[in-house]
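We were asked to recover a plausible sequence for a given structure. The inputs and outputs are reproduced exactly as logged, with field labels preserved.

PROBLEM: sequence recovery
POSITIONS: 246
GIVEN STRUCTURE:
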C-alpha cells in the first residue's frame, strides 16, 4: 500500500467515524430531550438526527446515491419539524410528506423483489402478517376518525395505504430469505408501523410523555435500519438464486 493509498484509507475511515458519531450523538441527544424537555424542543433535535442519517447515507453510497431516498428523507425532515411545531394544525402536510417518504422507500425496494416473487404473498406467514398489519391500521383509524375533520380523510387513507404497501414489500423480502440482513429491513418495517400507529393516538386521544419517547426511538430506528439495508445490500437477480418455499 502506497503512502497515498494509506492516507486515503485513513481519511475515509476517519470520515466514517465522524458520521457515525454525528448520527449516534444526535440520536442520544434527541432521546434525552424527549425525556426531560417539552415536546416542542424536539423541533430543533429530531430534524438534525434525520439529517445526520442523510449525511451518513451519502457518505456510504457516494456516486450511487438514490435521489428518491434523498427526497424521502428531506420530506421526513420537514414532516418532523411540522409534527413537533403543531401536529393538529399541520396534519395534512405531515401525512402527505410521510406518505412521500414511504412511497419513495417502497419504490427503492422494488429492485430487491425477484420475478415471480409475488407468489410468496400466498405463504401462510405473509398472509397472517398482512392480516395483522391491516388490523392494526384499521384499529388506529377507528380510534382517531372521530377526532379528524372529514376533509382530512383522504390524506389518512393515503398514509394508511403507503404504510401497508411499504410493510408488505418488507415482509415479502424478509420471508423469501434471499438476503442475509433482511432482518434489518423487517425491523425497519416494525418500527415504522409502531411509530405511525402510535403518533396519532398520542396526539389526538391520550398524550403521554412516555409515548413520545417511544415514538422518537422507533421513528429514528426505522429510518436508520432502512438506510443500513439499502446501503449494505446488493439486489440479486432471479438466475442467481434458487427460490425457497415453505
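RECOVERED SEQUENCE:
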Amino acid at each position: 500500500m502506497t503512502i497515498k493509498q494509506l492516507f486515503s484509507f485513513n481519511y475515509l475511515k476517519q470520515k466514517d467515524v465522524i458520521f457515525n458519531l454525528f448520527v449516534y450523538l444526535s440520536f442520544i441527544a434527541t432521546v434525552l430531550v424527549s425525556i426531560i424537555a417539552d415536546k416542542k424542543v424536539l423541533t430543533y433535535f429530531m430534524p438534525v438526527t434525520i439529517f445526520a442519517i442523510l449525511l451518513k447515507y451519502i457518505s456510504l453510497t457516494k456516486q450511487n446515491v438514490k435521489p428518491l431516498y434523498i427526497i424521502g428523507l428531506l420530506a421526513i425532515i420537514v414532516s418532523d419539524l411540522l409534527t413537533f411545531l403543531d401536529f393538529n394544525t399541520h396534519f395534512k402536510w405531515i401525512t402527505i410528506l410521510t406518505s412521500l417518504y414511504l412511497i419513495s422507500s417502497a419504490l427503492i425496494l422494488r429492485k430487491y423483489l425477484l420475478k415471480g416473487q409475488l407468489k410468496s404473498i400466498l405463504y401462510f406467514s405473509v398472509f397472517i402478517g398482512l392480516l395483522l398489519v391491516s388490523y392494526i391500521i384499521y384499529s388506529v383509524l377507528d380510534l382517531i376518525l372521530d377526532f379528524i375533520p372529514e376533509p382530512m380523510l383522504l390524506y389518512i387513507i393515503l398514509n394508511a395505504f403507503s404504510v401497508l404497501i411499504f410493510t408488505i414489500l418488507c415482509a415479502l423480502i424478509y420471508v423469501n430469505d434471499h438476503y442475509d440482513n433482511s432482518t434489518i429491513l423487517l425491523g425497519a418495517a416494525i418500527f415504522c408501523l409502531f411509530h405511525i400507529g402510535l403518533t396519532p393516538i398520542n396526539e389526538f386521544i391520550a398524550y403521554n410523555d412516555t409515548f413520545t419517547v417511544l415514538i422518537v426511538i422507533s421513528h429514528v430506528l426505522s429510518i436508520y435500519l432502512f438506510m443500513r439495508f439499502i446501503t449494505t445490500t446488493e439486489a440479486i437477480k432471479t438466475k442467481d438464486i434458487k427460490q425457497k418455499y415453505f
